UniProtKB/TrEMBL annotation:
This is DNA-3-methyladenine glycosylase II. Its EC number is 3.2.2.21. Signal peptide: none annotated. Residues 62-84 are annotated as: Disordered.
Length: 335
């Protein structure tokens, strides 16, 4: 019938008619590229893929990251050139990489930096026996550099003020529903949504994922200026953190967590964390009630390398005995 309303099948509908909210991405898997782009690179130093790339993993069921039993890593990214999937394997000291999708060449070009080629661990001098022992046991540890900001910024915002399990769940649900299947062989990976899609996630879906309005609003503010946020990856760490912190809701904790990954910043120590000050205080001074100020004082001998020092302390595994209950989970999706 002429003039009859015909709903767009690609848009969700609610009472009152069609909305501008995109429907969930169909779960079909994209056609595999005829041939993957490949690269072989031999680092001139020991390399531990799990240690280097581990900080990019947001929980054991992260839909953008997978580590296989043989130690190889697959990760899906949204690059400036488009979605891409990277598969990295270490064999006899050499890195063998395959990549698929529009972002394949971008990912392969930056493979050495991703795996720590721009890092300078030789600039680090241990000042404590525990730190020296931790470094000695992990010669393959280097600080990665992804060159991508939003892929670390959004999950870091989700992790603000809640348990990691709750944040991992929110990231998993939102990426699987609004992301897209990663290019290449079907491995069940997803590329996170593009900024416009994040901006159109309806309020009830944030709620179902357990994300409160404060964190959702911070993400919405960030994705509106995603291009400006991505520019921070090419800045000096201090400037990059300042750029991120221009967004209301992004403070020193979040900006440090991002710049550690996107810029490979060795001095971007995380302040405002619930556990890190106590762990550092206990490991270096036997103190159980260390605050941020005391932690920074203990890390002062590592000025310029404080993030690396904190990472080695965490890897040492010396943590204070628990004297208080775990942070309470609050399931806002049940409200």
């Amino acid at each position: 019938m002429a003039g009859r309303f015909r709903p767009d099948p690609n848009r969700a509908t609610v009472r009152g008619g069609a909305t501008g909210v995109p429907a969930a991405i169909p779960r079909q898997v994209p056609a595999t590229a005829a041939t993957a782009r490949t690269r072989r690179w031999t680092p001139p130093w020991p390399l531990d893929l799990a240690l280097v790339l581990g900080p990019l993993r947001r929980g054991p069921a992260d839909p953008t990251f997978r580590m296989t039993p043989d130690g190889s890593v697959r990760r899906a990214s949204r690059t400036p050139a488009g979605p891409g999937t990277l598969h990295v394997t270490l064999r006899a000291g050499a890195v063998e990489a395959e990549a698929w999708g529009p972002g394949a060449e971008w990912l392969l070009d930056r493979l050495p930096e991703l795996l720590g080629a721009a890092d300078e661990p030789e600039a680090f001098t241990p000042r404590h026996r525990l730190v020296a022992a931790s470094q000695h046991r992990r010669p393959g540890l280097r600080l990665l550099r992804t060159g991508l900001v939003m892929e670390s910024l959004i999950p870091s915002i989700l992790e603000q003020k809640i348990t990691t399990d709750e944040a991992y769940r929110a990231w998993r649900l939102l990426v699987r529903k609004y992301g897209e299947p990663a290019p290449g062989p079907d491995q069940g990976l997803y590329v996170m949504p593009e900024p416009r899609t994040w901006a159109l996630v309806p309020s009830w879906e944030w709620h179902r994922a357990g994300v409160d309005n404060k964190r959702a609003s911070t993400i919405l503010r960030a994705v509106r200026v995603a291009r400006r946020m991505e520019e921070a990856a090419a800045m000096e760490p201090e400037q990059a953190m300042a750029r991120l912190e221009l967004i209301p809701g992004i403070g020193p904790w979040t900006s440090a967590e991002v710049i550690q990954r996107s810029n490979g910043a060795p001095d971007a120590v995380t302040v405002g964390d619930l556990h890190l000050p106590r762990i550092v205080g206990y490991a270096l001074a036997g103190e159980r009630d260390t605050d941020d100020a005391a932690m920074l004082e203990l890390l002062a001998p590592y000025e310029g390398q404080r993030h690396r020092a904190a990472r080695l302390i965490l890897l040492a595994g010396r943590v204070p005995p628990r004297r208080e209950p775990k942070m309470r989970k609050v399931d806002i999706a049940a409200w």
